[in-house]
């Protein structure tokens, strides 16, 4: 009966819940409706912008009776930028939302009903936490635009400042924009696959203060290169690394394979806890170092190490978690598919004088079999997979090793509970989940899970 409600018609309704994308949910004449930026308990006026046989989509026109948890967004482009979806929700309520996300996913798997889910650990000050930003660059009416993409779009939304990233990134981008406006550097057009500058990547070492800038270009070199280097580094002497990333493919993949240093070092250095890490342009390095340290310490706590254990760290990246584990384990084996990440991981272990870590490059399942063939029998396995979670073959290889404990670090509750359910059905029992807010004002949440073998 959805067709009985006309597109562009105006209606009043009450929002009853949020979905996992923080969209408001309600009912209109018995038909489910989705409304962006509306909160539970609010009485709102909406304009119908999409009609389907089974649901409606409404655009928020006005809030007639606001929820107690509604707050004023701190960003002027909040309603347009695709970066943050929860700025209109008070921070304590954001943490509740993320705890509920984890609980809702766990409740759908019968083997996980006894798992304890802790409340989400938040930040004292949930602002300016990001150490990395990636800006698309484009042209609009012959004017340079730099910003973030709108939701489900390649429209670039400009903003002079971003309240969730380190303020030094705003300064770098302001200077680059100023330079581009009077330079010979052409701007990439993704429809024509022409022009040079595609993206700008900025990384900050939050403790070291070192800054890395990477220009992603549709070419091999940069006009006005020397003047660009001189101008940027004179304005911001904290910049220790300037690189060109060459990406001449017609693709939505942002970074190309080749990085060419044009000033300073290939890496910048930062610290997590008592450890130092060198970070390269393509390194995966968590974007919120304050919460990352808490995340890693929770993972070590759940590993329950006495100093005698052998630990396998799957999807180890540049070796961050491995270093935290190595201080309390006898031996750590880190496994990572990306060759450049393994190179960085080995360097980071040496940088921290950790001699009880061995890094193996290759697919997780294959390297686990190799360790088994070497008669390596880990007491603890730690996994930190990408959003898609672990392949079943990887879980089977872990189960075959019969570790006493597992720690599962996840950025995607849906794939986390899928994998936890499989482990629970195969002798590995999840016991507790600790959500940690690494991404305030967004819908993302990181979870750390403690798992033990059932026959212990």
Labels describing this entry:
456 residues, alpha/beta, OB fold (Dihydrolipoamide Acetyltransferase, E2P), Rossmann fold, 3 domains, seven-stranded mixed beta sheet, 24% helix, globular
Reading side by side through the largest sheet, how are the strands ordered?
6-21-22-20-19-16-17-18
Largest sheet: 8 strands, mixed
Classified in CATH, the superfamily of the largest domain is Vaccinia Virus protein VP39
CATH T-level topology of the largest domain: Rossmann fold
Which CATH architecture of the largest domain would you pick?
3-Layer(aba) Sandwich
| CATH class descriptor of the largest domain | Alpha Beta
* Secondary structure tally: strands: 22
Q: What's the helical proportion of residues? A: 10-25%
Instruction: Classify the secondary structure makeup into a structural class.
Output: alpha/beta
Distance between the termini: 56 Å
Task: Give the total of domains.
Answer: 3
Uncertain stretches of 5 or more adjacent residues = none
Rg calculated over all Cα atoms: 24 Å
Mean pLDDT, to the nearest integer, reads 95
β-sheet strand percentage = 25-35%
Outline: globular
InterPro entries: MeTrfase_TrmA_AS (IPR030390), MeTrfase_TrmA_CS (IPR030391), NA-bd_OB-fold (IPR012340), SAM-dependent_MTases_sf (IPR029063), TRAM_dom (IPR002792), U5_MeTrfase_fam (IPR010280)
GO biological process, one term: rRNA base methylation
Binding site for S-adenosyl-L-methionine: 286, 315, 336, 384
Family: Belongs to the class I-like SAM-binding methyltransferase superfamily. RNA M5U methyltransferase family.
